[in-house]
Design brief:
alpha+beta, Jelly Rolls, Arc Repressor Mutant, subunit A, 2 domains, four-stranded antiparallel β-sheet
Length: 222
């Protein structure tokens, strides 16, 4: 089922006519939870516009450790850099839950025919680079608890559902994946979550987190 695109994501920035043109040249596909949509190192001629569900974008270090680069949701554009540059995929995209999206094979042609969209894509790419720079600063300046708090705030702002004074997040991430997203060990992330629980900021369950004090969590993230 198609979901509303996240604000600021690729699909949310397009006009109704641009969306219609994109869907006309695309093919709707569905993937189950755990499926690999794209593989790091592969070369391919198609991009994907996600219409529902969430995925993780990850890469592996030389010693085999997984590093989670981003979590993407409805409206996200994936695989565009490889299509445009002709270079291999820079990351692996894995479904965190059932997902669907439009596979667009002539994405470069679509951009040639829609100059405004090409400019929008450039702005998105700049935003990704800024986000990457911000995370590198976090890794050097924040402790593990601060980085975990930052990721939880991001998830709450993007995917959280209000529940009274709290915010609930259906978290399709394991602790190993959260560790890969924060640049820390699983043990360090487990300790950070325990610290946040002991302070009454969060409550954790199986693949879910309830944030009881989002403002205090933001302060801890800083």
């Amino acid at each position: 089922m198609t979901s509303s695109p996240e604000p600021g994501e690729f699909l949310a920035l397009l006009s109704e006519d641009e969306v219609a043109d994109l869907r006309e040249i695309g093919r709707l596909r569905r993937w189950d939870r755990g499926a690999t949509l794209m593989s790091e190192g592969d070369t391919s001629d198609w991009a994907l516009v996600l219409t529902s569900g969430r995925v993780k974008v990850s890469s592996h270090t030389a010693n085999g450790n997984e590093v989670v680069l981003a979590i993407r949701g409805p409206g996200s554009l994936l695989g565009d850099m490889s299509v445009i540059s002709g270079e291999p995929r820079s990351g692996t995209v894995t479904a965190l839950e059932p997902v669907e999206g439009y596979v667009v094979r002539d994405f470069a042609g679509f951009l040639n025919d829609h100059g405004r969209v090409a400019v929008l894509l450039l702005k998105l790419v700049v935003g990704r680079l800024r986000d990457s720079d911000r995370k590198r600063v976090e890794y050097g300046a924040f402790d593990t608890t601060g980085r975990v708090a930052t990721r939880l705030v991001e998830l709450a702002e993007r995917f959280g559902e209000p529940s009274g004074a709290a915010v609930k997040i259906a978290l399709p991430l394991s602790q190993d994946e959260l560790a890969g997203w924060t640049g820390a060990s699983r043990e360090a992330v487990s300790k950070a979550l325990r610290t946040l629980r002991d302070r009454g900021l969060i409550e954790t369950g199986r693949r879910r987190v309830t944030i009881h004090d989002l403002q205090a969590l933001r302060r801890r993230a800083r």
